[in-house]
Design a protein that fits this description.
The complex is a heterodimer of chains A (about 625) and B (about 200). Helix content of chain A is about 65%, strand content about 0%. Chain A is mainly α and about 625 residues long. A two-stranded antiparallel sheet of chain A has the order 1-2. In chain A, helix 1 runs parallel beside helix 3 (about 35-50) and helix 12 (about 270-280) runs parallel beside helix 14. Chain B is mainly α and about 200 residues long. Chain B has ten helices and no strands. The longest helix of chain B is centred in the C-terminal third of the chain and has 32 residues, at about 175-205. At the A-B interface, helix 3, helix 4, helix 15 and helix 18 of A face helix 3, helix 4, helix 5, helix 7 and helix 8 of B.
Chain lengths: ~625, ~200
């Protein structure tokens, strides 16, 4: 049974012309009984139809010769020296194997004995480039090269220009003899070297081999191609030596040969070592190996060792290829490997999650497994947010809460399309900055009032100290006009965690007394027993001029803790007085915010309060 | 379909083109003129789809070749000349877009515009509705972030493979796929009111 989630993914792939026939049929079956998906598909099709209505370029109005003349004139008018340097948005990137093969070939050209190869040139094929050699070596090498290349051609599917020429082909016996000699020299040069050998050891073994070949009169033989053939040799020592040599001198073609021997357990570690040494050239072969459960672990290790965007991308491609991926028993293992690729692995995980190839919980697990994930994610958000789907990115950001991502989250919250997800993400952030951001979004009307308020209230309910810190900040910056709005939000939140922030506002002499009064009374409604001491401390700082505030403190204490603890705040009272004040407190509480009752209570409190600050200074 | 395929920048540098580039790099104006003749229409087509009008597309195509000429020394033959000059064109189109001040917007501005436009489409004329919708699509495309718009145009309107889209836009294939997917989703979101209304129209019929 196809799920709607899967169907949605297939609808998108179908729009892109990338859905397989099998999935297309399964999608049709699903659509036949799912009205919601059917409607999604219809909308998608209408969008594609709309694309088709776009105005076509007016090729018929083009005057190519005029354009050529125009370009000429512009070039003449702007001499190169006077022109500013061209700055491309995008780096001139390597385009895969073509360039890599050229580099490897150049390396071979430099390291091989001279005068056997006249021309070695690269070409960029549609599939990434192929190596083409036009060889005209002196005797005895031409035959050897021709024969060897013909034999090796299955490795890369490349053709050799020489094979089309009338060159006498090397006799099989002669070729076997050549191969045997090279195999012997390889085994000799690389004897006792393990995959853990250092680069210096491998490099010196390669030089030993080439020197040996030179002394043996084989200066013109293409040792790399012969080594590729020896990979399959029944003598394991020779095969291993060949594998190690190819890591030093091989190229993209060698990588494919090395990839093929990964299935041989005894040679695989040697081949993996060399594929790592080949770097980007080795990635395709390793990606193929990812599909084989027995080779997967080694290939993953090797890809991680190569690292970089291309290596991560190889794994991502395997995981994104759902048609193969579904069949893979070790899919879980592959998914778990994503964090090993650091930043690039996380980027891959985000893209896979956007296409539902990775579940959100798997994405979060990938985030958790990545060292310094929050920093990495913060950097991705700052530099490449556009490369990812907002919903997925918000999910990861909400999970890891990187501070660097906060401005982006704020931006998303202001976009109506992502407002709910943005606010939900913002809610998850710790720290004062996030609370300030949430409140300002609401206060300035940049988010819808209901969503903004709900989100802010959820944040207020979490961290009393943070709430208090924002009150302090507003008062310290003398932003009393903002404090009024903040007070309203605190009261509306209905959260006991808002009480310390309310008391902080109540303590400030900079704030209007009415607002302070409101803050104290609200604290009485929202506070709990843990706020009793703070209220008492607040009361102790008041003087006669603050009697209404004092009354409010008593009422708040009464609301939270009851009559006795409230009256205890006043110290020892005569029984009559205690009874009168108690009755007044009950009245005030019963009548809610009756200012008359509050005033009466305030008057009664006058004798219990300290003289005003000014009168104290007079005395 | 044939013309679309023809317009694709091909990965392989043909021998003739390789010679032309080499000769142009050596200062032979005739060789560069030939490169302009071969590629001008394709570059213009891409720019038309990116900037939306003939005049600007033609001017920018010309500028693309002027810049290509100036930077021939930078061209190392790692991609085809066509891919390279397309990349320059893309860069110029993005500059042009920025200069015109049509930046990314926060909020479904386009959606709102279309809702208002869509309300008028209940009138008798489907033709008017269609025109308004096309204009709405252009507005929506303009407001897409640059990288998404470029990827969508290359993939959907130029019909390129992701490998080529990735080369031209300078991202990995997977990123190119994500950009196209995001662009489609964003457009669908912005145009949703109309896309749903089409449903109603069809039902009324």
């Amino acid at each position: 049974m196809t799920s709607c989630r899967l169907a949605k993914r297939w609808i998108e792939r179908a729009a892109d012309g990338e859905l397989s026939l099998e999935h297309e049929l399964r999608l049709e079956q699903h659509l036949a009984h799912c009205a919601a998906c059917s409607s999604t598909r219809d909308r998608q099709q209408r969008l594609e139809e709309l694309f088709a209505t776009r105005t076509e370029p007016r090729y018929e109005q083009l005057d190519i010769e005029g354009a050529v003349a125009g370009v000429q004139a512009a070039i003449a008018a702007r001499p190169v020296d006077a022109a500013p340097p061209l700055r491309l948005n995008y780096p001139l990137r390597s385009v895969g194997l073509g360039a890599a093969a050229a580099a490897a070939a150049a390396l071979w050209l430099l390291t091989r004995p001279s005068n056997d190869v006249e021309q070695l040139r690269d070409s960029e094929g549609e599939s990434g480039g192929e190596l083409t050699q036009a060889v005209a070596p002196p005797e005895p090498s031409p035959d050897a090269v021709a024969q060897i290349d013909a034999d090796t051609s299955d490795l890369a599917g490349h053709t050799n220009a020489l094979t089309q020429q009338s060159v006498e082909r090397l006799q099989p016996e002669r070729l076997a003899s050549v191969r045997s000699s090279v195999g012997g020299w390889l085994a000799e040069s690389f004897s006792a070297l393990q995959p853990s050998a250092s680069d210096a050891q491998l490099s010196s073994a390669s030089e030993r081999l080439e020197e040996r070949a030179l002394l043996g009169g084989a200066a013109d033989w293409p040792l790399v191609r012969l080594a590729e053939q020896l990979l399959q040799h029944e003598d394991e020592q020779r095969a291993r030596a060949a594998a190690l040599y190819l890591g030093q001198r091989g190229d993209a073609l060698s990588a494919r040969g090395l990839g093929r021997v990964l299935r041989h357990e005894s040679i695989a570690p040697f081949a993996l070592r060399s594929l790592i040494a080949l770097g980007e050239d080795g990635i395709d072969a390793l990606a193929e190996a990812l599909l084989e459960p027995r080779q997967c672990a080694g290939a993953l290790d090797a890809l991680v060792a190569i690292g970089g965007e291309s290596a991560a991308s190889a794994l991502e491609t395997v995981l994104a290829d759902s048609e193969r991926f579904v069949e893979l028993e070790h899919a879980e293992q592959l998914r778990r490997a994503l964090p090993r690729f650091g930043e690039h692995g996380l980027a891959s995980a985000l893209r896979l999650a956007a296409r539902d190839e990775l579940s959100r919980s798997e994405l979060r697990a990938a985030c958790d497994a990545l060292p310094q994930a929050a920093d990495v994610l913060g950097m991705l958000v700052q530099e490449r947010a556009q490369d990812f789907e907002e919903g997925v990115l918000l999910d990861a950001v909400a999970h890891l809460r990187p501070a660097a991502a906060l401005p982006w989250v704020e931006e998303r919250a202001q976009d109506r399309a992502t407002e709910a997800e943005g606010l939900a993400c913002l809610e998850q952030f710790e720290g004062l900055e996030a609370l300030r951001s949430s409140w300002r979004l609401l206060d300035s009307g940049r988010v819808s009032p209901r969503c903004g308020r709900d989100s802010l209230h959820a944040m207020l309910a979490r961290d009393p100290e943070r709430n208090k810190a924002l009150s302090s900040e507003l008062l310290a910056k003398d932003q009393c006009e903002l404090a009024e709005g903040w007070l309203e939000v605190l009261i509306e939140s209905g959260a006991s965690a808002s009480a310390p922030a309310l008391l902080e506002l109540a303590r400030s002499a900079a704030l209007a007394k009415d607002l302070r009064l409101l803050a104290v009374l609200a604290c009485g409604e929202l506070g709990t027993l843990e706020h009793v001491e703070q209220l008492r401390a607040g009361y102790a700082q008041l003087d006669v001029d603050d009697r209404r505030l004092a009354a409010a403190h008593l009422v708040a204490l009464y609301e939270i803790a009851g009559e006795e603890p409230a009256l205890d705040t006043l110290g020892s009272l005569a029984p009559r007085e205690s009874s009168r004040l108690g009755a007044l407190l009950r009245q005030v509480a019963a009548r809610g915010e009756s200012s008359v009752s509050l005033l009466r209570l305030a008057r009664e409190l006058t004798p219990h309060l300290r003289p005003t600050t000014s009168s104290r200074s007079h005395s | 379909m044939e013309h679309v395929l023809e317009r694709r920048p091909r990965g392989r540098i043909t021998k003739v083109e390789e010679d032309l580039v080499e000769r142009a790099s050596a200062g032979e104006q005739a060789a560069f003129d030939e490169l302009v003749r071969r590629h001008f229409a394709r570059v213009y087509g891409l720019l038309f789809r990116l900037v939306g009008n003939h005049e600007d597309a033609e001017d920018l195509a010309q500028e693309s070749f002027v810049r290509a000429h100036r930077s021939l020394a930078l061209f190392r033959g790692q991609s085809s000349f066509a891919t390279w000059v397309w990349r320059i064109a893309l860069h110029l189109a993005q500059d042009h877009h920025r200069r015109r001040g049509v930046g990314p917007v926060v909020g479904p501005l386009v959606g709102d515009e279309l809702v208002r436009g869509g309300a008028r489409t209940h009138g008798p004329s489907d033709e008017v509705a269609g025109r308004e919708l096309k204009a709405g699509l252009e507005r929506a495309l303009e407001r897409l972030p640059e990288r998404l718009r470029s990827a969508l145009v290359l993939r959907v309107f130029e019909g390129l493979e992701y490998e080529q889209v990735a080369r031209i836009t300078g991202v990995t294939q997977q990123t190119a796929r994500t950009h196209v997917m995001k662009a489609r989703r964003q457009l669908a979101r912005w145009l949703e009111p109309w896309l749903d209304r089409s449903d109603e129209r069809e039902e009324r019929r």
